[in-house]
Amino acid sequence: MGADKGETTFVKEQPAHEQQVASFWLQKSEVSNEQYGRCVQAGACTPPKNDQWQQLVYADDPVTHVTWEQAIAYAAWAGGRLPSEAEWEHACRASDNRTYPWGETEPTSEVANFNSPSNGTDAVDLFPDGASADGILNLSGNVAEWTSSLDKAYPYAKDDGREDPTATGKRIARGGSFIYTHYQLRCFSRLALKPDATNRDVGFRVLIEAAQ
Questions:
Q1: Distance CA 153, CA 175 (A)
Q2: What are the pLDDT digits (tens) for 52-100?
Q3: What's the gap between Cα 74 and its chain centre?
Q4: pLDDT tens, 113-131?
Q5: Would the N or C end of the chain have less CB density within 10 A of its end CB?
Q6: How many CB atoms lie within 10 A of CB 137?
Q7: Cis peptide before 128 (omega within 30 of 0)
Q8: How far apart are CA 137 and CA 142, in angstroms?
Q9: What span, in angstroms and rounded, lies between the C-alpha atoms of 171 and 46?
């Protein structure tokens, strides 16, 4: 998890260190507008702060303009939770500790939606060539993804309060987005956001713990 100084200039991402996580299932794609809309219709979620989440043309695009609390509410309604930073990064890097979900090659428009702030989001099921080793789509690019973790310095320790859902402070989003360059698309990149932030390039996906 993380990176050493020779791999990144961002102090927030340093140092590289080992972590263990329990088995889990991670949603193959980011939560879409259509999926989130079902939670709104059920009365378990509040609407995103944009005008397109109910528009048919954007049904398959990732839901955006949702706060950390809204993401938490949807995940609970869907029977899961948000991934921690450690879980998210494990899904991205796989067992071979790759830099990007697809491997070591620099990103192109064939594998991710990035570096195009004027173009906006793409459908959550696009870019199969950029899938992770386990077939998970859009871990890099399209939208950054909320995690459960507080913005705290490394090394990561799940028992140091950073996974306390009642704690105050910024939360970490992962994966870069259509706005960012390739630096933010690396699996170890971290973005700290206020939990009440609603951004056009931030969404989420759901984790379900595997039966032990």
A1: 18
A2: 999 999 999 999 999 999 999 999 999 999 999 999 999 999 999 999 9
A3: 14
A4: 999 999 999 999 999 999 9
A5: C
A6: 22
A7: no
A8: 10
A9: 20
- Closest C-alpha to 89, from 11, 2, 152: 2
Contacts of 159 (CB under 8 A, 6+ apart): none
d(CA 153, CA 88): 17
SS3 89: helix
Tokens of 121: 């989001």
Distance of CA 205 to the CA centre of its chain: 6
Quick one: tokens of 13?
């991402």
Instruction: Strand 144-150: give its sheet, edge to edge.
Output: 191-193, 171-174, 144-150, 202-203
Tokens of 118: 């004027």
pTM to 2 decimals? 0.96
